[in-house]
Amino acid sequence: MLKWLRGLLEGSESGVNVSATEAQALMQGGALLLDVRSKGERQASLIPGSKHIPVEQLASELGQLPKSKVIVCQCASGHRSRIAARQLRAQGFDARSLSGGITAWKNAGFPVRKG
């Protein structure tokens, strides 16, 4: 019942959210990790290898992103990354959102470093 309700609420976003483990596997397969947090948040901690474009600047920076790769968007908790993934999908990118953000990444035991 919950899965059905979640699917109904997410609508066309089914398959957008990925876990930290799924995100890591996508990155190992060549996906780009896109950090959409603010500059200050990124200075505090970042996922090594991620590219940084704050969600507020995403529309004007689309030319920096490859349409040939899966893009996994990442923020602090998953809210802004879902917004970014939706924006990117609307422009023809294959974009996903790291569910739980950098917090989920850390909790999964994956590396994080100071920005």
How would you explain this protein's 3D organization?
The chain is of the alpha/beta class. Strands 1-5-4-2-3 form a five-stranded parallel beta sheet. Helix 3 links the parallel strand 2 and strand 3. The longest helix has 12 residues.
Q: Would you list the SSEs in sequence order as H and E?
A: HEHEHEEHEH
Structural class: alpha/beta
Largest sheet: 5 strands, parallel
Strand content: 15-25%
Low confidence ranges: 1-12
Number of helices: 5
Strand order of the largest sheet: 1-5-4-2-3
Report the span from N to C terminus: 42 Å
Rg calculated over all Cα atoms: 13 Å
Strand runs, count: 5
What is the general shape? globular
Oligomer: single chain
What does the average pLDDT come to?
90
Tell me the helix content.
25-40%
Essential attributes:
115 residues; 37% helix; five-stranded parallel β-sheet; globular
Question: Short description, anyone?
Answer:
The protein is of the alpha/beta class and 115 residues long.
Task: Present the secondary structure layout.
Blueprint: H1 2-10, E1 17-18, H2 20-28, E2 32-35, H3 39-44, E3 51-52, E4 70-74, H4 79-90, E5 94-98, H5 101-107
Parallel strand pairs: 1-5, 2-3, 2-4, 4-5
